Hints:
The complex is a heterodimer. In chain A, 23% of the residues lie in helices and 36% in strands. In chain A, helix 3 packs across helix 4. The radius of gyration of chain A is 24 Å and the shape is globular. Chain B is built from 24 helices and 2 strands. Chains A and B meet through helix 1 and strand 6 of A and helix 19 and helix 20 of B.
Amino acid sequence: MNTPSTDTALAFVGVTHRYGRTVAVDDLSLDVGAGEVVCLVGPSGCGKSTTLRLAAGLELLQVGRIDIGGRTVAGKGPPVPPEARRTGMVFQDFALFPHLSVIDNVVFGLRDGDSGERRRRGADLLERVGMARYAESYPHELSGGEQQRVALARALAPRPKLMLMDEPFSGLDTQLRDAVRDDTLTVLAEARTPTLLVTHDPREAMRMADRVAVLRDGKLVQVAAPADIYDRPASLFVARFFGAVNTLVGMARDGEVETPLGKVSTGNKDMAGRVVVGIRNEGLLLGAEGTSASVLFSRVLGPYSVVELQVGGGARLTAHIPGTEPPEPDSVVYVDFDRDRAFVFGEDTPNK
Amino acid sequence: MVSIDQIASPRRRLTAEGIWQAGGFVIALGVALPIAAVAWIALFPEENIWPHLFETVLWDYVVTTLELMLGVAVGTIIIGVGTGWLVSTADFPGRRWFQWALMLPLAAPTYIVAYVYTDMLEFAGPVQSALRAMFGWETVRDYWFPDIRTIGGAIAMMVLTLYPYVYLLSRAAFLEQAAASAEASRTLGAGPWRTFFRVALPLARPAVVVGVALALMETLNDFGTVDYFAVRTLTAGVFNVWLQMGNVGGGAQIALVMLGFVVLLILLERLQRRRRRYYAMSMRQKRARRRRLTGSSAWLATLACLAPVILGFAVPAAVLLRHALVHAGESWSSRFPEFAVNSLLLAAGSALLCVALATFLAYAVRLQGGRWLRGAARVASLGYAVPGAVLAVGILMPFGAFDNAVDGWMRDTFGISTGLLLSGTVAAVMFAYVVRFFALSYGSLEAGLGRIRPSMEMAARTLGEGPTGTLARVHLPLLRGTLLTALLLIFVDVMKELPATLLLRPFNFDTLATYVYQFGSSEQLERSALGALSIVIVGLLPVILLNRTVARDVDGPL
């Protein structure tokens, strides 16, 4: 990890960044591989935008090292200024130049070749994002989704070695967002541009990323593929961040925890003492077997139904169950749970 | 949100950012130089004339200046706040027209208005002649007529030309006030007058104070009027001690006293500007509905708004126009085109220079935003409050010292005398303009840049453009309107400027303003009418510009 590898599009090595006394980024090390899309996700104020701007050179590196495409751009010798880093960036507000037409925005970053070649390259990119018809329009005439596409084309035009995206979809309507996300992924994959994308939306991270990096209070808490993040969260915080979780407290002994719903394996023989067991809401199974529980409340939400339960001993649980015919309030049901949707965390693991 | 000064800059020598920062410092310090020079000369004079000044004229100058300022403050508040209140909260015949017409007096410099009124109201003028003809009076002893060439006359002239500052700011403040506060007051049983004094005026007070501070800065700056009326203010004192008594150190010392006044005014203005924020409402609140005036009160309101427009603009403009037409022969001297060209070139050149320097500094601050650079920029922006006469002292001193040093060194080394390189040149005059109007351009540029989102330059930078290219390709095109406005405002102010031009201009070099001064102050208004009229016409440009902004306010939701 100490020598820049050419397979690595971007590497943060031990990066720490402070604003005054506040530590925004704390000893962060993270790679983005060739052609890979990594999503940096976390609650607002966790330091993810700072991390992105450090990579772009829009923020001066204080501690650590940053390599782009195998070349150290900050941390050793004078830092490479943003304009020489060959990164493309898509901003939350798209930041299209309002005084330039769409095509002039796209060719803004092109240096090589005569103006005819540049315009051909620009037109080609507009074609790829499906905006060729709007080449002569001005940014204010475009919808949010269209502006986003132009911003993407503009950032890709100079063939960046690395794409940086700062909440690129948060300015869009919910309905539009999924379509634009998928189109963006297609375009990025075609261009084989490695990408670091910052978002506060866990669903977006899951949808876009080859790997998800979860940042909390400036610290990386987990980096893994989306399925791993969901199925094997490193902490209760990560588990909760990607989906609703019921928590039960229990004592661990001999690799097992006793809970009101039955035993769970800790997966680690050494774990002992008080532990927290997290069970995903959809991991709770209502059927003929398991622990009896009374239904406090139920509602149909459409894709699934939500059921509030109380088990013996007073623990309250929330279950998300398929179908539109949840049990009636005050009825008694039997609860079991899917062992793959349950996680055990020692009490020292940071949780909420 | 991301602030632009967090954009990283490589810490090494000779980076583009380094050049911007160094350049920014040079500009800021250069612009601050005259102010520093005045303070320096006054505190360390070659001969100490402080005691002498205190014993003789200084007290007189200070008291006269204070009287003048007090009179101007009271007058501009009455007219400015009164008309501002009327057009923003009441409906009466001509209201829409008055909204912008009340700004017209800004077009004419005070000294020109003073020449016109003296011409009209003196013993041989049309007014007194008509009175004499009507009542059969013959000599001065037969009747009493107020003498305009007194401090009272000077106050009247300044109130007539400077009240628009107070009008503009208080009108905006009244428009900003939420309907709710006025309505609450009315439902609590207060009538419109009580509401005005208890609610609207206190809410508008910070804006009114800022307007008055600006008017008083102009009052301190005025030389043409007080010179003509022989009112012994501090500005007149600088001219007197410097030119008549040939005592430069004494001039500088009086200038320093003026700086004291200026500092007080700036503090007053800044303090109230800061408070304005707390008084301003959020834009979503409903604006107060205007009260429809009927009958005699409506016509009184019309009259109250009409009078300042007639007296401050229509009468002077008409008199000048008539003189320029009737006395076209005398008014059109063979040197008129020369003076006009001098004025135009000086105004255009200084405006371009001033805006270019301000753009450089504002962009450097945006790039770097260091505390020192920001502080230097703030000091450099003090020039607008410093009277032209004070600036002239502050420029001539260091320039003279520089010229002497170069001349001495050249003579010793090469046996050549270089004479005056900077003092008494057009460069010195332009320098004064740049310093005096720097704040105007810097303020607009700073505000204009503030409206450009930081992501704009971040986008340009990540697209491979350096800081200088980003300015050229992104900021300057986006700032076009701001730049043009700043250029226009400075152009017009330079055309009108008198005291610094008089003190610093090269020998036998005249502009329209100095030409008008020369003949106006020797009671030959007909000869200066064409020049004066030209200045007033050019002065209308910013009024038209302001009119557009005001119209935008008006068309907004009511």
